[in-house]
Write a structure and sequence with these properties.
The protein is mostly beta strands. The protein is built from two helices and twelve strands, in the order αββββββββββββα.
Length: 162
């Protein structure tokens, strides 16, 4: 777990570096993706409720299988229920939010918290009704999949989270 956290911390620091890009085709060259070139999209309405901004930070490049993104939830916004075939790490970078596994209690997450969600665990995460929350999500792909989206968290399920 310590090695995984160290790897995530290193990737997080690399994702925030703003350096002139290097155009190389050699697979042994270091690649830098400038922050202003990273695509930001609205969270898909079949995967999120409310106002959500998703920024892909990096995709898995063979032989690696890790990918990461920054997700920002406005008050009341949340993901749908979902699972990850190899688990997920969330590093909360701003605000206060909630995370819940299916059948479990809602847990409060705050800036600086690191959340480990084991492989195959059905869960959701998002902002509270009155606060924003942002996190960087790290996950690995298995057979080309990083996430399996399920049903949306209903308003009633979300209200019960209080």
């Amino acid at each position: 777990m310590r090695r995984l956290f160290s790897t995530c911390a290193a990737l997080l620091s690399l994702a925030n570096i703003s350096v002139v890009g290097i155009a190389q085709t050699d697979s042994t060259q270091i690649t830098i993706t400038q922050s202003n070139s990273q695509k930001v999209i609205a969270g898909a309405p079949d995967r999120f409720t409310g106002s959500v901004r998703v920024q892909s930070l990096f995709a898995a490049k063979e032989p690696a299988r890790s990918s990461g993104g920054q997700v920002t939830f406005q008050p009341g916004a949340r993901s749908a229920w979902h699972t990850h075939p190899l688990g997920q790490i969330l590093i909360v970078t701003d605000g206060v939010g909630w995370v819940q596994k299916w059948g479990g209690p809602v847990q409060v997450i705050r800036k600086g918290d690191v959340v480990w969600i084991p492989a195959g665990v059905k869960h959701w995460h998002g902002a509270t009704p009155t606060t924003t929350m942002a996190h960087i999500a790290f996950q690995e792909q298995l057979d080309g999949r990083v996430v399996d989206w399920l049903e949306k968290v209903t308003d009633e399920q979300y209200r019960l989270a209080k």
